Amino acid sequence: MTATPIAVVTGASSGIGAATARTLAAEGFRVVLTARRTDRIEALAAELNEAGHQATAYALDVTDRAAVDEFATAFRSLAVLVNNAGGALGADPVATGDPADWRQMYETNVIGTLNVTQALLPALTASGDGTIVILSSTAALSSYEGGGGYVAAKHGEHVLAETLRLEIVGTPVRVIEVAPGMVRTEEFATTRFRGDTEKAAKVYAGVDAPLTAEDVADTIGWAVTRPSHVNIDLLVVRPRAQASNTKVHRTL
Ligand code: 8X3
Predict the structure, then answer these.
(1) Mutate which of 135, 150, 238 to test ligand 1's pocket (most atoms within 8 Å of Cβ)?
(2) Is 58 a residue of the active site?
(3) Which of 18, 42, 104, 204 counts the most CB atoms within 10 A of its CB?
(4) Cα separation, 23 vs 20, whole angstroms
(5) Which protein residues touch ligand 1 with a CB less than 6 Å away?
């Protein structure tokens, strides 16, 4: 009997991470949910197990390299790693943005992805058929006013994905970058605007059907279940009402 393939999802406590964990569990993976907020990932793991799936929760801060290395010792073989942990802080112009915000976004989005990817790469390779997913953003591909440190960090993740793909070609590991545009989740914009729900709501105001976390999870599920020799290098997914980072149709 072959063992159930394992998928690790970072930032699995909410939004795209939680939805991806559900999708991959339904696809037959044993999912390992990681995030800093233990209560949320434990509740989701319990829910998935009750539904007949296999899920475990592991509290992890992806910016803590020692903790990430310790976590990685649990895996001799790993099928899928979804690097989803990250996010935006602030929407200030470059002229006035807080360097502390820039630093934190670089830490969580880029160094966090680097930490987990480096630590789990041996297990992904040992599986003989590993998949790394990097959740970047359309902010990884072009700039927008007020994007500032988030755009810079997401460009960093994009470069990490491209460079890694070049470097490990010939090994049995593929690197998939998923770059979503406007996704309405419960936390992304609220975190960006530090709890200001009015400002957060404006991001989506008048937009007919922004993407949902489930829409993005669906694309991730599709990409990781392609045959092993198929590498979806980069998948850009936006709502129909958004034609570019700055061209959004609003009915206001
Ligand atoms: C989220 C998309 O437009 O807020 O990654 O940068 S955007």
Answers:
(1) 150
(2) no
(3) 18
(4) 5
(5) 137-139, 150, 181-182, 245
